[in-house]
Amino acid sequence: MTEAIDLAEQVLSAKEQGVIEILRLLQHPEDLSRLADITAEYESRHRAARTTLSAMVQSQVESTRLGMDLLERAHRHILKLQAALERIDRLCAECSDLVHHHVKIKLLATTHGNVKKVLSEIEDIVDLPYRADRCWEMLEADEANLVPAFEALVLLTGTAENAKLAWQRSNKSAADLSELSAYLARVDDVMRRFEKLLFEAHLALPHFIYLSQERPTLLVDCVRVMELQELLDAEYRRVKMGAVPQRRYKDLFFASITAGAEERFKDLLELARTCNQPNTVVRIDQDANVVVSEVRDYLGNLTRLVRIVNRQEELVDDPEELRGIEVFDEPLFDESLFLDELLDRGLYEMTDELAMVYDYTAACFPPSYGIFNRVFQTYHVQFAVVIDVLGHSAAEGMSTQGALRVMDWVQKYMDTLRNLGVDDDLVRLPPSPLADPESMPGMVVLMDSYVGRMAKTMTEWYNRILDADLRGNPKPTADGTLCTLGAIDFFRMLSQQVSIIEALNDHGEVMFQTARTALDVMRGFQETQREILAGPGGGGGGAGLAGGRPMSLEMAVAFINNNVTCYDQSLQFADDVQRQLSKAYRDQLNIEDVCRGFLEVAKAAPPVPSSPP
């Protein structure tokens, strides 16, 4: 109502102002001539006023609408604020109740946390076998995952062990514990498979030796696994976790080297025991002739046969002769075949493995492992066992050539050890742990057998030489000296024996025994000449016998000259032997006395007045 009155007053005031304005504009008569302009100006101003008024009204309407919106929003926020205040009142009331029950609430929160933890652990326990299987699958997919798989399995096995201990402490029934153990046994099974792969496939002899050459990274991973387990074992000992088993991978590995070497040499040891036992079968006829080939018809009758008779092949195709031939198998010992298998395909291969350990394997292990020394010491003992058994088995039946092959292998083996940096004190073969302490080492037995045969052979040879000299006639040399060829032949054969050992590159025990035997043979040669020169009576009062005949003056002179020549050649022989022997053996031979023995023989020659008619 008030607004309507104000509006009417404003209208009236506006009319009055309009009248006043018209009167002002039309004060003079001439102002009527401008009435049209005034009217136009009025209309223009009227339109401008209406436009301004319309804009003001529109602006006022918009302001009013905005104010209404603000009022609406304010109303909604007031309602929300009232609801929040009501909720605050309710929460305050609830908080007041919680303050009175905080002990129960704390207990409930703890229980809730424990339940969540138990549920999480149960989920982990239930998932343990599947995680272990995934570890194994990861390892099978790529063995480069060896270390990650081991780390995961260690965590899984530890969790499984803790679960079983916790279940046992909770006083559950034995049946429940048995079921849990059976369920978690899959984790232990995967760990056992991992350890089998580690120790039987990768770290067993000789696998890890060849692995170091073919896949050194994998071998390094295996060593890392052992080192990690060593750290775990040390930590378990430190915290005194007796319930956790210590796996001791490093000790297992070292023990496996010894056991693996024994198993590795087992076949060679059995083979060495079969020396001089039949190892092949040949076909022979009833006359012990070796049958090279035979052809039979469908009835089994011989139609063609080739055999060795007097070291020559003989072809038999005559039906009558073939009917009289019987062919059967004869087992025999082939020494060459035996030594090929024992030495070339056995001991030499083991020696090559030692070189591989030095060149490749040792670099994959920490220096503290001393892997080369461990493998060397283990192999060294096994080599000694095999050679000891071989020496005792082959001493009597093995040929001289076979004994030389064995000694050649021993010498090459020791040279290999020296080249690998092994001390000379450790190079020689140790006593066999399986041998009788009272018996001689097999290598010594074999060596004694060899030098014994050499002495026997040389004795037979010089007896034949002397017999041939006595039955022949001495011949003058270029300077007119009478002599026979026996002295030269004798020392040529002695030098051959030394050259054989020299070819073995042996300057130690074998060369020493050979040289000592050669000196014994020289003494025997001198003694035999003394007996010949002394004659049948042995008193030295008459001429000796030359092949059953009295010794001629020429022969006696030739014998004297021969011994002077033997003295000169013995000095050369002594120098050669001393040069071949190592320093440790040079002073153990009484070479000078033996050499002077030839001069003593020459002096002891009986005087012969003349040649027999």
Notes on the protein architecture:
It is a single chain. The chain is mainly α and 613 residues long. Among the domains are: 2-89; 116-247; 284-332, no CATH class; 444-603, Orthogonal Bundle (Tetracycline Repressor, domain 2), CATH 1.10.357.50. It contains 19 helices and 9 strands. It has helices spanning 2-25, 35-100, 102-141, 146-169, 174-202, 207-214, 216-238, 249-273, 319-323, 335-361, 371-394, 400-419, 424-427, 442-471, 486-503, 509-534, 553-580, 583-586, 591-603, and strands at 280-285, 291-296, 302-309, 312-316, 327-332, 475-476, 482-483, 545-546, 549-550. The strands form 4 sheets. The chain has a 3-stranded antiparallel beta sheet with strand order 2-3-4. Strands 1-5 form a two-stranded antiparallel ribbon. Helix 3 runs parallel beside helix 5 and helix 15 (486-503) runs parallel beside helix 17. The longest helix is centred in the first third of the chain and has 66 residues, at 35-100. It is rod-shaped and about 205 Å long. It starts with a helix and ends in a 10-residue tail after the last helix. One of its GO terms (cellular component) is exocyst. Pfam families: Sec6. One of its GO terms (biological process) is exocyst localization. This is Exocyst complex component Sec6.
